[in-house]
Design a protein that fits this description.
Radius of gyration of chain A: 20 Å
Strand content of chain B: under 5%
Strand order of the largest sheet of chain B: 1-2
Order of helices and strands of chain A: HHHHHHHHHH
Largest sheet of chain B: 2 strands, antiparallel
Radius of gyration of chain B: 49 Å
Largest sheet of chain A: none
Oligomer: heterodimer
Shape of chain A: globular
CATH architecture of the largest domain in chain A: Orthogonal Bundle
Strand content of chain A: under 5%
CATH topology of the largest domain in chain A: Rna Polymerase Sigma Factor, Chain: A
Helix content of chain A: over 70%
């Protein structure tokens, strides 16, 4: 079969539909692939390990409840990030105030051990906590874009899809957030 | 000099922000998170599978495909609308048109008429018998009303005996 025939066959033949025969296996694959990224998304808002894990578990329970739609999802990562994002924001809204669980020791434990030594040369745990507290004072749109941009696995396009906006909007929000954060830090002064 | 200091401060702030964000974005969950998630999902699946037997048609409805649920919802809405319209039409047919409300009186020279005049509950006036005058007839030329001899009266009401016009007239006694 020539190249043209192959292309023709791919155009004429119906595209293979990603319809999982076994939803349980699909969910297990999603858990294996995305649970860490989802945990990071949740942790960026909750700053609490237990709450973040609970949000991730709730995310997959929602996936289970809508498993009949699994075949319709085009981008699992964006879909799952949107679910976990809505869960943590909803919980935060219900809690009204930021939980006092900004546990520095908890956070320090979650840092990569290889990064920790390098990070300690730049900022201490207290400075780290102060920067996170200042992030909470940013406007919601800028803060959300900045928090999601911190998650390693997410590209700007995926953040834009999760927040239902454009990539350029996300870039400008991140830029504004960093600028405002720098202004706030400068006002308060970084200890040397 | 001060520009160098300012740029140095800026870069230090930028580095601090980067470090804080990197630390937050690279947080690692407790080991075994996948197993815990899968266990919880499995428990939830078992609960969901046991649910239809307990909750009957409500749970079965939840597991129905979306288009079927939408069709069912549309059909139910249509049926409800039909029942409301049919009930309204049936009710309006049963209520007689004359009993709805008394018609407004259109009396010339009167701003407001007696509502009881046209009301079905008001007593109808009794017409005078054939060839006779009414219960009381007025003779304006003599200045007095005269009661007809065969006039119907309520029981227990005394009426003066009929007399001639001349004798009963106070003017004629003189």
């Amino acid at each position: 079969m020539s190249c043209f025939e192959g292309q023709l066959a791919s155009w004429v033949a119906p595209a293979p539909i990603a319809k999982p025969l076994d939803n349980a296996r699909t969910i297990a694959q999603l858990v294996a692939e995305y649970s860490t990224a989802l945990y990071r998304v949740a942790f960026s808002v909750t700053r609490n390990a237990a709450e973040a894990e609970d949000a991730v578990q709730e995310t997959f329970l929602r996936v289970l409840r809508h498993e009949s739609r699994l075949g319709e999802i085009r981008d699992y990562r964006v879909w799952l990030v949107r679910i976990v994002w809505n869960i943590v924001l909803d919980r935060k809204r219900r809690a009204k105030t930021r939980p006092e669980g900004e546990d520095i020791a908890d956070h320090a434990r979650t840092l990569h051990s290889s990064d920790r030594a390098a990070d300690q040369t730049v900022i201490s745990s207290q400075e780290h906590a102060r920067i996170l507290a200042l992030i909470d004072r940013l406007p919601a749109r800028e803060r959300e874009a900045l928090l999601l941009s911190a998650v390693e696995e997410l590209t700007t396009a995926e953040i834009a899809a999760a927040l239902e906006t454009t990539e350029s909007s996300i870039r400008s929000r991140i830029f504004r957030a960093r600028r405002e954060l720098a202004v706030l830090l400068e006002k308060e002064g970084i200890p040397r | 000099m001060s520009g160098d200091m300012h740029s140095g401060s800026d870069s230090r702030i930028e580095a601090a922000i980067d470090t804080a964000l990197r630390g937050m974005g690279s947080a690692l969950p407790e080991p075994g998170i996948e197993g815990r998630i899968l266990n919880r999902v499995a428990a939830e699946r078992m609960a969901m599978e046991a649910e239809p037997a307990r909750n009957g048609w409500l749970a079965a409805l939840r597991h129905t495909p979306r288009f079927a649920r939408q069709a069912l919802g549309l059909a139910t809405t249509g049926l409800l609308g039909f029942l409301i319209v049919a009930g309204s039409v049936n009710h309006s047919r049963r209520v007689g048109p004359g009993r709805v409300a008394p018609p407004a009186l259109d009396l010339p020279g009167h701003g407001i008429g007696a509502a009881s005049a046209e009301h079905p509950a008001a007593p109808a006036s009794t017409p005078a018998p054939e060839g006779e005058s009414g219960r009381a007839s007025r003779h304006p030329q003599h200045g007095r009303a005269r009661i007809a001899p065969h006039a119907r009266k309520a029981p227990g009401v005394a009426l003066p005996a009929p007399s001639s016009h001349k004798s009963s007239s106070p003017d004629s006694q003189e």
